[in-house]
Amino acid sequence: MRVKLVVSGLLLGVLSAFAAWAVHWSFEDHQEATYELPGAVTKLSLGHGPQEATRADSIEAAVELREFLAERSLAVVIAPAGDGPPRLVVADPGDALPWYTPPNPMNKHEPGRARRGYVFEGTYSQRQWRRGSSPALVPEEVEIVGTVSPPEDAGDLQYVRPLGDYPLPPGQYLVNTDDPGKLAEIRDIAYRAGFADFSTERVPLWRHLRDDPLVGTTGVLLGAGYLAAVLCWTPGLRDRAGEFAIRTRHGATRARLVRQVWPRGLPFQLLGIALGVAITGVLVSLVGLRPPDRIDWLVMAAAITGGLLVAAPTWLLAAVLGTRVRSGVGRAE
After folding, report:
1. Where are the beta strands (DSSP E) in the chain?
2. Signal peptide position in this chain (predicted)?
């Protein structure tokens, strides 16, 4: 039975590790989709509407939006839509974005504030800027004054500029709130800039996890694995029918049998789960051609903890089912 517990625990450890990595990868995908905005995130697709607006109206709307976000302690990331320029526009008065750390934050009344921007590190535009050339992918009206780290999976994005005194750009507006009142105010400001809200999408983490096929698949496999474990462990306990029958004749209750069997199997399950998670960690490192980093170790620790937390009650269920049959046999004899 001990070997069976270790081997089955190893297989459950592999499934638990893959489930943990699936959740981690899905979380990273969500972070990439929301540009690492914290909390509830809503995406507004704003484009040119039927109403007319002048350049002055659009600039006034941009200033109004920036002040509104500062008053509400909200952050917004404006991503290009379609074939727009390879840039992000950011307003982050509360320092909510971990990657947006301008080396020389701008004073509200500083001259030339509206023209400033920052190239992303590791991009073609940064290499051009380092050589003293004007980045070809950055428009002339933007003055590059420094560099910032790019968000996760920035792709072809080259630079970021703060929301300033220039026309409000169309695109995907990601804001860290799902409050209907605040979103309505943002739409009103955008309307005065000549925009219309073509779609509104809330992107909560739980929904992203729910809709992720990899998370769903690994979850189903993990559930099936624990069901198979019950079907495997219960017959193993029934093989000890004679032992349980003798204990029952000498006054052992079913609860006492369970209390004796259950804790003795946990160390072997823990050993198997740890081995399974370790094997999976080695495979992930080999596929990624890199040693495990801090995040990988945290994922593996979560897999071991989660695997044992689920395996323990599963083993308890198997112990209850196995000893109940033997107790009945003992009384009959």
Report:
1. 42-48, 76-79, 87-91, 116-120, 143-148, 159-162, 171-175, 195-202
2. 1-19
In contact, 197 and 190? CB cutoff 8 Å: yes
| pLDDT value at residue 254 | 80
319 shares a domain with 224:
yes
Query: And the tokens for 70?
Result: 């500062």
Q: Are 219 and 196 contained in the same domain?
A: no
Q: What is the separation of C-alpha 103 from the centre of its chain, rounded to a whole number of angstroms? A: 28
pLDDT at position 326 is 42
Q: pTM score, two decimals?
A: 0.79
Q: Are 274 and 256 within one domain?
A: yes
Contact 135, 84 (CB under 8 A): no
pLDDT tens per residue, range 316-329: 998 888 887 444 44
How many domains is the chain built from?
A: 2
DSSP 121-173: TTSHHHHHHHTTPPPTTS-TT-EEEEEEPPPTT-TT--EEEE--SSPPPPEEE
* Beta strand 87-91 pairing with 159-162: parallel
Token pair for 107: 């004073």
Distance in angstroms (rounded) separating the CA atoms of residues 328 and 333: 9
Find where tokens 């350049």 sit. 55
Owning domain of residue 176:
35-202
Q: How many CA atoms lie within 13 A of 246 on its CB side?
A: 3
> How high is the pLDDT of residue 110?
53
User: For the chain, what is the mean pLDDT?
Assistant: 88
Q: List Cβ neighbours of 32 (8 Å cut-off, separation of 6 or more).
A: 151, 152, 153
